[in-house]
Amino acid sequence: MHMPASVTLLVLIALPQVWAQEAVGPEAPEEPLGIPVAGVVLWPEHDLSATCVRVYSDPSWKRLVAEYPTGGPTGGVGLLLEPGTYYLMAFSDQDRDTRLSPGDGLGFYGVTSMRGNPIPLVLDEGSAGLSVTITIVGQLDAEMKLQPTSAQVEAYDPGDWDASVSGRVTSSEAAAGRLCDALQIRRKRRRAAIVKALSDRDSGFAYVARKVEPDLARAAVDLGLPGVGCYAEEQRTYPLKGIAAQVIGFAGTDNRGLAGVELMHEEELSGRPGSETVVRDPEGRIIKTVAHRDPQSGADVRLTLDREIQFFAEDVLRRTVRDAGARAATGIVMDPRTGEILTMASVTREGFHGFGKDPATEKNRAVVDVYEPGSIFKVVTISGALADGLVKPGSRFTLPPSIWVADREINESHPRGTVTYSVREILQWSSNVGAVTIGQKMGKAGLSRWVRAFGFGKPTGIDFPGESGGIVLPADQWSGSSIGNIPMGQGIAVTALQMASAFCAVANDGVQVRPRLIAQVGDEVHDAVTRRRVIPSTVARQVRRMLQLAVDEGTGTRARIPGYAVAGKTGTAEMPLPHGGGYAKGVYVASFVGMAPTDRPRLVVLATVDGTTQYGGDAAAPAVQKIMRFALHHLEIAP
């Protein structure tokens, strides 16, 4: 699976309203019409401290007047407020009746922002219910002094858009509303945040929206609102949407990896931006290029995941969660010979709806979450006892209905009388009492050694960030009942990946291969395989034959696949209560791990179903059967 390429989208920016500073200069006349003075635009004729234009109302002319300091142009810019008539006029001492069409430019000295952008000056509503914007434009000269060039006056009626003189919006709330409508932003909380951002007088700019569709951005820019602009930036696209989302992870607004493979391989994926160092003349023209570096594209990262199996497995797990009334489910498909992860799926009852919405749905549960494995852990106990020569597949034990270990009584999952089981039958029928009896023969030191040998208590080393090593106490910290808990998969916490890796050792004739997700980065193929022997090959084959009995006739019959020899083990673990308060009754982590074909397994498939009232053979085994059957056929693996 390739990491997706970026696409270019538009980003919309709006300059907040620039409000005038307090004037220094002639005292303004009284304001009998109640038209408030909105403020002052600074006019630095020679430097930034120079006194400037003052705006105020004139009762005789019913207008807003702009006054200038000595040396500036005579007259000013005003708005006639005649009943029912809205039009703009520019006037001077010689001619007070020169009328302009809305938006006409005026020969006018003024100021500009240090960025060279127009400065909107918004006058509060007057007696006629109008708002006025005076936009003054200028440039910085070679000596970094401001040289005003032109001004533009516009007005609108905020209560009647049809009567708008200029069609432009100057109030923050109205501007935000029109922008949100154009961008199809409907959530009240987000709209309110945009109003707040545009009203911030201390900010030089504010983002209205990022990573929007080009058509929406174009519609917003086409509104013609003062100070609104856009620029292009790249965005990650995920062609398969949410498939394998928890593995791939995601990149943030600035395209930096924040989770999963995106985070682990951020450096390789991001590439390197180009740069150029130049010398400019006072007019801003480039005179000389001192240094230049071309941009370098990021490298593709190819995963070991099989797209078809991944899609199918996620669908099966979603249906399993629904049918079993569970909270979540996890699935893994591995090639035990190479350690390649063909599927790594995490689903929840709520479903995945994108990153940043629900942390519980975003994490890769197969790698970061730990759980008590329950009866599937009996494979570790029995494999260790066989390898140490303490038992043989045919060794027989007389097993009472329950057994006391220290202060704890251990029962079977289903009531029964006293029986005599072989080791083969203990695994086939998943006997708790039988597993504890074998664990006691191994002793604390022996059992602890095999737990560690199978890789529990430390990360597997998979190329994925945030892997948990599980929880395994040293033997000298075990309680008196630990030798009764751990042989049947309680009192220990593992990840789904650790459990699948342990079964891969059994499937691969006793050799454990480090799991891996990355197949290739750029031109570099990641095909190195790290192996270590865990149990003798003879023991691995013995255990596989026992596990096939568990599927053919024991607790895992619902994992049978017609035409294939399947080996596997069920697990049903009570869910621990928070803060060490014991176990929840009747709520389980149901699991099943299977492998096929039994003689020379090509696939190991694990499924865990979290928070269900069903046992592993009923909730998880059918899911593994469906996923295994599809994968065997898809990969054309012969029986």
Explain this structure to me?
By secondary structure, the chain is of the alpha+beta class. The longest helix is centred in the last third of the chain and has 22 residues, at 432-453. Residues 1-11, 13-140 and 144-170 have low confidence and may be disordered. It is built from 17 helices and 30 strands. The chain is elongated, with a radius of gyration of 37 Å.
List the topology elements:
Layout: E1 6-14, E2 54-58, E3 63-67, E4 76-80, E5 87-91, E6 98-100, E7 105-106, E8 119-123, E9 131-140, E10 146-156, H1 172-183, H2 188-198, E11 206-212, H3 214-221, E12 228-236, H4 245-248, E13 250-251, E14 257-259, H5 260-264, H6 266-270, E15 275-280, E16 286-293, E17 301-303, H7 307-324, E18 328-334, E19 341-348, H8 359-362, H9 365-368, H10 378-387, E20 396-399, E21 402-405, E22 408-411, E23 419-422, H11 423-428, H12 432-453, H13 482-485, H14 496-507, E24 511-513, E25 518-521, E26 524-525, E27 531-533, H15 537-552, E28 567-576, E29 583-596, E30 603-612, H16 616-619, H17 621-634
Antiparallel strand pairs: 1-11, 1-12, 2-3, 4-5, 5-6, 7-10, 8-9, 9-10, 13-14, 15-16, 17-25, 18-19, 18-30, 20-23, 21-22, 24-27, 25-26, 28-29, 29-30
Gist of the model:
By secondary structure, the chain is an alpha+beta fold.
Share in helix: 10-25%
Largest sheet: 5 strands, antiparallel
Low-confidence stretches: 1-11, 13-140, 144-170
Ends distance: 27 Å
Q: Which strand order spans the largest sheet, edge to edge or round the barrel?
A: 19-18-30-29-28
Give the strand content. Answer: 25-35%
What is the mean pLDDT? 75
Query: Would you tell me the structural class of the helices and strands?
Result: alpha+beta
